[in-house]
TrEMBL record:
It comes from Plasmodium vivax India VII. Keywords: Membrane, Transmembrane, Transmembrane helix. It comes from the Eukaryota. The chain crosses the membrane at residues 231-256. This is Variable surface protein.
């Protein structure tokens, strides 16, 4: 039984610790706020070069990576870098990927690959600043992961614009419509794979959207609730009871270990008392 419980414990760890964590719902506004703190006075418009980045890496992007982008990127990366905590650096890089996609590439991925420009901009920053906090994140993201980061970020971007958390000049009902469209597209992505954290982010969006729409009447043509991917995803039907079984097995494993240790302690002290009283009896 001990071996079986131990194997279940290992399987539980593999299932729930190896998947990539997006943290989009928790971090999107936090890192967007850093860029909103950028001041246009920081831009060196008179300079032909991108201050703060090595030309060796970014000169090939002169047609799209302007001095304004350069200044914003410098402000953002230096601010995120000052945090130095690994998970925050990780989350900061995720939003930086979306910013490059949305503002620098203008959502056009045909001419430049987002992964390539992301890596070159980071390398240019590291080479110029001599700081290596971002070194671990240059090749950290695969193209598949980046695609999902962008899908989730764009969905949340439209949701926060719809709510008014992000200042913009768009029609908020258009943002609501786009948010719902992206959500439904992401459900398909969720159904096609086994990326549980990606699906979890959809749960977060649905909960936030449904809660907001209960007290909001400004966009009557928008649905009041979003469909749950769980209704159409057979994987959830399988993984949910399996997860419960693993949790129970894990709990039993720890209970078994605790009781075993307590028994060994009891046995140890019982032997001591037995020897003590036997010795005392013989001496008397």
């Amino acid at each position: 039984m001990s071996v079986q419980l131990h194997n279940n414990f290992r399987l539980y760890i593999l299932l729930f610790s190896c998947h990539f964590q997006y943290n989009t719902a928790k971090t999107f506004l936090t890192y967007r706020t850093i860029l909103e703190g950028w001041n246009s006075c920081e831009a060196k418009s008179e300079s032909r070069h991108c201050i703060g980045f090595s030309e060796e890496y970014i000169s090939q992007y002169d047609d799209i990576f302007t001095n304004i982008h350069c200044s914003k990127a410098l402000h953002y990366l230096s601010t995120v870098e000052s945090i130095t905590e690994s998970q925050r650096l990780n989350n900061g890089c995720k939003y930086f990927l979306y910013w490059l996609y949305y503002e620098v590439l203008k959502k056009n991925l045909y001419k430049h690959k987002i992964l390539k420009i992301y890596q070159d901009v980071l390398l240019g920053y590291i080479d110029s600043s001599y700081n290596h906090y971002f070194s671990n994140y240059i090749s950290f993201f695969s193209e598949k992961t980046i695609d999902k980061i962008i899908k989730l970020s764009e969905m949340y971007d439209n949701f926060y614009k719809f709510k008014g958390d992000i200042h913009h000049t768009d029609n908020k009902c258009d943002n609501a419509k786009e948010c719902v469209r992206l959500y439904n597209e992401n459900i398909k992505v969720c159904e096609e794979g086994d990326d549980y954290d990606f699906c979890y982010e959809l749960d977060n969006l649905k909960e936030s959207y449904d809660t907001y729409m209960k007290s909001n009447e400004s966009c009557p043509n928008s649905p009041k609730t979003l469909e749950s991917y769980r209704l159409f995803n057979p994987t959830v039907v399988i993984i949910t009871p399996f997860s419960i079984l693993l949790v129970i097995s894990l709990s039993l494993f720890f209970l078994y270990k605790v009781n075993f240790i307590r028994f060994q302690i009891y046995k140890y002290y019982s032997n001591i008392y037995t020897v003590y009283f036997q010795t005392k009896f013989l001496l008397n």
